[in-house]
Amino acid sequence: MPIDASPRTRIFVTDDVDPEGVELLTAESAFEVDVVPTLPPTELYQRIGEYDAFIGRSATKVSAELLSHASRLKVIGRAGVGIDNIDMSAATAMGIAVVNAPAGNTIAVAELFFGSVLSLLRKLPAAAASMTDGRWDRSDLLGSELCGRTLGIVGVGRIGGEVARRARAFGMTVIGYDPYIGDERFQALQVRRVASLDALLPDADIVTVHVPLTDETRGMIGRRELSRLPGGAVVANLARGGIIDDQALLAALDAGTVRGAVLDVYVTEPLPADSSLRAATNVVLTPHIGASTVEAQRNVAVDVCAAVRDMMLHGELSRSINLATVSGRPWEQLQPGLLLAQRAAAIGRALLVDRGVPVVRRITLRAGTDLAGEGSALLSAAALGALERVVAGERLNLISARAIAEGRGIELAVGDAARNEEPTSIEVTISGGMESVIVSGVVAPGGVVRLTQIGGFRVDVAPRQALIILTNNDVPGVIGHVGTLLGVAGVNIAEYHQARLSQGGEALAAIAVDGIIDDDLRQRLLELPDVRSATILDFRGA
Length: 542
Ligand code: NAD
Hints:
The chain has helices spanning 19-26, 41-48, 64-68, 88-93, 106-121, 124-132, 158-169, 183-189, 197-200, 223-227, 246-255, 276-279, 294-314, 331-354, 375-387, 401-407, 478-488, 519-527; strands spanning 9-13, 31-35, 53-56, 75-78, 97-100, 150-154, 173-177, 192-193, 206-209, 233-237, 258-263, 283-285, 362-367, 411-416, 425-432, 435-444, 448-454, 457-461, 466-473, 492-500, 506-514, 531-538.
């Protein structure tokens, strides 16, 4: 599961990523780091195939075409927050982790917001230009204040929150709309929560958006929304081009219903020289410089380089944005749960195959309360377990497993375990055709993975290098025969758990062994009296 760190791990760093971050990589003897200026795509296509990791900013477009040349690539690091320059689905399908640095430029954007709004309200660009021109135009430069005004923040995340804190210092009233965060955050920031965008607009003297660009937020402030603002309002977009509809904004500025706007981001960047926005009055436009401070560039470089280093050295994937983990728990703490999900799914699939059902159609996972927050990552691990050894020629790992499973028409579902189940339990159901197999387990103290159910049988066994699952008739002597056969073959039995449903009926043995069970040995197990089936799981390297 960890990403291999070989002594020849090669890292490509481009787009002027701050040297303080790059030093974290060059300090590691396991890495060979090349710092290269931003390259034209065709040149990059020729070089990218030699590298295990890529780190850049927004200038280099990490397209599906670039990735098609990146046969060794395992990690893409983005020194910054926006990932719109990365083809996420291509990266995910290829099992390439994508990591960004979402927090490093928060303060820079929050500070630019106030710089830009004050510039607009105090006419600073005109004031500065008039002085350079030798004039002294005080009467033309009557401005207005922030104090006493209401700021409406759409998206009260990292940047929205920092804007709120600073707005209070300016004596503003702050209201916010963000349906995805809890009341506590609003209370802590002393932001009055409003239930909808429509409810925010009529009260906002200044409205600022700090949301990601999604299908939901694209054009979220258009003609109708602008018309709901109070007269003389100011509009700000330092998030992503397209969240505020440019044409609607231009029309409102023209009509004077909106008094001014500050924009740092545009639908097309660079903003075309003939864009009508450049000709608009009462706007302060900046060329996407929200994160352009020395401090922010250093923060994001250090942040992303540390994350790429940890991925390459330790397989630490918790910072990967295409593998969703939400608990914020250290990556090592998640490992036993991921391993259990993966092993349970692998066992379920192997049993299905031995029953003559080679194609998995559905994977259902239910996790106990301690693990429930990691449902998505656990499901990825289960998909990985179910697909391993059946997927050829594709890059299968924790990142790509879900996308590959879905691409093969495997239905995936995750839910919570029943209340009376262990908090660290995981139950995986693998279905195909008319058959389903349930395999459950728990993460025992010390992070040990123990299986507790295989099919209809209760077991208690910790899988080792290999696991033998035998079904047999419940008659005396079978355990002795199996033990003798494995002993003669030099296979050491670590644990042997025998379970049965009723006396004399079908029994199941889960046998954890150190050693390899090859086809010949499996055949000899099957030839033992009263053995009905023998399923072998080889967990070496998995
Ligand atoms: P964040 O994830 O911390 O916060 C975004 C917030 O938006 C979240 O709280 C989320 O719940 C909320 N949200 C999502 N959809 C919403 C919706 N439909 N309605 C209301 N709220 C919604 O992100 P952040 O770090 O604060 O970044 C915010 C924006 O700023 C992003 O678009 C980011 O790309 C942009 N940004 C721009 C620059 C720049 O140079 N101008 C630099 C950094 C970040």
